[in-house]
Amino acid sequence: MALANDIPLSSLAPNTAGRYRPARAQAQAGIILSVPATLLLVALVIGPAILVFFLSFTNASLGLAGIQFIGVANYTRMLTDPGFAQSLRNTALYVAVVVPTAIGWGLLVAVLIARSRFAVLYRTAYFLPVAASLVALATAWEAILHPSLGFANTLLQLLGASPVRFLSDPATAIYALAAIGVWQLVGFNMILFLAGLSTIPEELYEAATIDGADRGLKRFLLVTWPMLAPVTVFVTVMTIIRAFSVFETVAVLTQGGPMKSTSVVLYTFYEEGFRFFRVGYASAISVSFFVFVTFLSLVQMRVSERRARWKANGGQ
Amino acid sequence: MILGQSSSSRIVSHAVLVTGAIIMVFPFLWMILASLTPQSEIFDGSLLPTPTLHGAIDNYGTALSAIPLLRFMANGFVVCLAILVLQIAIAIPCGYALAKLSFPGRPILLVGVLLGLLVPVQIPTIPIYIALAKSGLLDSYAALVLPWIISVFAIFLFRQFFVTFPDEVLDAARLDGFSELSIAWRIMLPAAWPAVVSFSIFSIVAHWNDLYWPMVVITNPDMMTASLGIAYFRQAGEGAGNVGALMAGGVLVTAPLVSFFLLMQKHFIRGLVLGRH
Amino acid sequence: MKTVAMILAAGVAAAAMPAQAETKLNVYYAWPEHEVIHKPIADRFMADHPEIKISFRAAAPSYDEAVQTLIRQSMAGELPDVHYVGFNVLRPLVTRGLVKPIDDLVAADHLADKGYTEQILSLARIEGHLYGLPFAMSTPVVYYNADLVKQAGGDPDKVPTDWDSFVALAGKVGALGNGTSGMYYQLGSDDWATQNLVRNFGGQMMNDKESDIAFDGPAGQAAVKLFKRFHTDGAQPAIDSHAARQLFTSGKLGFFFASAGSVSGFEGEIGDRFKLRTAKQPLGAEDATMPTGGMVAIILTDDPAKRAAAWDYVKFTTSPEGQSIVVPNTGYMPTNTLALDKDHLAGFYDKHPNWYTSVLQTPRARPWFSWPGDNGVQIGEVLRDEMTAIALGSKEPEAALADMVSEVRALLPKTN
């Protein structure tokens, strides 16, 4: 709170004269209050982001002097690099599984919990993964999913199924990671939906009952779903961003393997930038990543908002 | 009452909830059981590990002696707290100014915040890393904390929260001679308390679990955070093969955060609800 | 507690000695499990040299990671003073100018009289300059579960020395049922294991002039085909090495290929659950060789006082005394011939035959080939990924080898 030192102490004391502050004073205060954040925003987010943009057109390498401008070579390399294409595919697959599942499941749980007598108990159980240390729990998952000795395979064999190699099989590894991702996000989304549900006025449900939508799915579609639209947008964007930036489970459990089947974009970025020191190339990856996530978030927001408006109009 | 009720639908809904809840809790259960089971018996073909007293003593003993786990946790705690306090101290005044004060540059700042919201947090890390390296700040609390003290998400959240705050109250406060700064701290902060709680949970979860950044800037074991420490222990000789000790470490690292959040759960939900009005 | 003890120790030391300038050495090593050797060596060294204080950085998870961390740290001017670098990654550090020759230090000492043979020193020599002292050496050996081998009808005293019989026996172990697998040839985190297979058929990774790759010849072909047979005929499960190691230590796997440096770790993890033994690797050709795993102690500091202290430390860690800590606690072979005398390790090998297997393989040990250029780590990853593809059956050996060839060529420096 170094901020307080920048402002004359006298201005802090309530003025008994009861003088209304003119616009100029307000402008001044606005600037003072927002200066620290503005400077840091420029220094730590926007400035570096612009720098990364420029670096993406160079052959910069960590620890080696001499940077050359190489045009769009990093981008063309990216487009022709099978490794990068694979990491895009893996990420898309991960996101495609995690986003709908984590949102749908979170919503289902929230709706069911809201009317349950054991709400607190359920809520606690579902919230547990949110608060857990992911690295520690990922290790527990790894043991549970052990290709031959783990709980999951012991159970499968008891049930007469053949064992699955989960994290060791390139065909299943990304799904195993996605399952862990869903496991971690459901509770978070549930909490957000629960908060949304509690703001829906009871009268709407009463009105719906009068309209004949007195139970089940009808009621849900007529009242709950449209009313949850703003929360759903928020949840969706948050989930997309978090799914796109999956890193911990990959770094701890698979390091991108087997056979690059779990090398997601952020992990590739980390490897290129901090392991292979190709700063220019890593920058190109992150710029593309930014464009991609932004595009997807915008589309998603548009779609959800239109849907929400449409539903809301249709529903009332 | 969101859905209508019948006894069959109630049974189905409980079945769904219970199944999900078991999946949610199971890894914790397994972790606790394994942390109490001798290393040699964890993978002995039985469905679940069977705890024994000496297994528990062995595993927790190893976890606490092989690596400075308590130190890692203390580091994680200091880092999370420092990040959180700075984030809030910087975001509240800015959020207030953006919501309630008209000043030159406000529209640009707002655009900057929205843009910042879209920049994935990993993007600026390369230049920041180089800057930290050049200034000799790697392997320090500063390296762990500094890049995160500006949270555009927090600014945005608080701004949204403040926008709906009644102007009359602010005008009254101004008439009483409050400065804008004291309005921010003495009126807006308490009013924003639910949003602060919600944001704190976002922030603490993110930074307690973060592995990416500590992995990049920390090599000195004395500076490791809990997540990095566990990831490190996992590869260490006594952790690599020793699932029992690793799980004991996991329990120790997970316990404080889980208990804290279970306590705060109610406030968290309330914060989100109020934040939406 | 530890802090209290340290403060007390420091107090006692301060009281006991006249004020003396203390030299601090910062030491960095790979493989966290090697703490069991580095700590005691440092403690003993500091007891003899109270004016030098050794501190450690967090160990790197592998040789490759260690080098990458060093390169990052060099940017920040935060290099450690001493590092134990993997034989395969000494070269990139030299190329980047992070480590300087120690020829001047060596010239002042009479190393030959102190048990350092020219053959061993050559492991740390690049283009005529010596860059450090080899600290530990190993070759890949076969760890096996003698109980399972016996059950499968094999003779635990005579593990087959040719691949056909070996793979057949592993297949029999895998057929025992009850979740048992035959063997696991560990690829590991670098290209050591892949190089080992190529060398096992008398091949090399690149030609002697390093102008082109050589692993695509008959030896390489034989290597990838054999690796496929491990899985099809030898009952090797296609799982990651973490999981496989757990399988082996739980008594559910017959044979496990790994560095001899893990003997002590394996014995500790297995205890008396089953009879663990080691054997020489089967050989695919008369002129088979093996890459020497292990590390070189190098000095990274330029500060004259620190450099002198670091030299003392490096000499100590490779002395008979240091080596008698290294060998029993890991499984590595000593790099100092004097360590084999009766005051040190002479009796040890008699009592621990599992340790001796690697020594028997030394006539075939060669330097671990280090790739020219900046992409050695990534080349290692390419090789590992293609080998994994063979293991999983998603690529035929020939196709995987062809892909290795084209991908590795693209990563090698373009000289011609």
UniProtKB/TrEMBL annotation, chain A:
SUPFAM superfamilies: MetI-like. The keyword GTP-binding does not apply. The chain crosses the membrane at residues 29-55, 92-114, 126-144, 173-200, 220-244, 279-299. CDD domains: TM_PBP2. Pfam families: BPD_transp_1. It comes from the Bacteria. It is a multi-pass membrane protein. The keyword tRNA processing does not apply. GO terms for cellular component: plasma membrane. It is found in: Cell membrane. InterPro entries: ABC_transporter_permease, MetI-like, MetI-like_sf. GO terms for biological process: transmembrane transport. Residues 88-300 form the ABC transmembrane type-1 domain. Keywords: Cell membrane, Membrane, Transmembrane, Transmembrane helix, Transport. Belongs to the binding-protein-dependent transport system permease family. This is ABC transporter permease. It comes from Mesorhizobium wenxiniae.
TrEMBL record, chain B:
Keywords: Cell inner membrane, Cell membrane, Membrane, Transmembrane, Transmembrane helix, Transport. Pfam families: BPD_transp_1. Residues 73-264 form the ABC transmembrane type-1 domain. It is a multi-pass membrane protein. Belongs to the binding-protein-dependent transport system permease family. The complex is composed of two ATP-binding proteins (UgpC), two transmembrane proteins (UgpA and UgpE) and a solute-binding protein (UgpB). GO terms for biological process: transmembrane transport. It comes from the Bacteria. The gene is ugpE. The chain crosses the membrane at residues 12-33, 72-96, 108-130, 142-162, 183-205, 211-233, 245-264. Part of the ABC transporter complex UgpBAEC involved in sn-glycerol-3-phosphate (G3P) import. Probably responsible for the translocation of the substrate across the membrane. GO terms for cellular component: plasma membrane. This is sn-glycerol-3-phosphate transport system permease protein UgpE. It is found in: Cell inner membrane; Cell membrane.
From TrEMBL, chain C:
Keywords: Periplasm, Signal, Transport. InterPro entries: Bact_solute-bd_prot1 (IPR050490), SBP (IPR006059). Residues 1-21 form the signal peptide. It holds the Pfam family SBP_bac_8. One of its GO terms (cellular component) is periplasmic space. Its main location: periplasm. It is found in: Periplasm. Part of the ABC transporter complex UgpBAEC involved in sn-glycerol-3-phosphate (G3P) import. Binds G3P. Belongs to the bacterial solute-binding protein 1 family. The complex is composed of two ATP-binding proteins (UgpC), two transmembrane proteins (UgpA and UgpE) and a solute-binding protein (UgpB). This is sn-glycerol-3-phosphate-binding periplasmic protein UgpB. It comes from Mesorhizobium wenxiniae. The lineage of its organism: Bacteria, Pseudomonadati, Pseudomonadota, Alphaproteobacteria, Hyphomicrobiales.
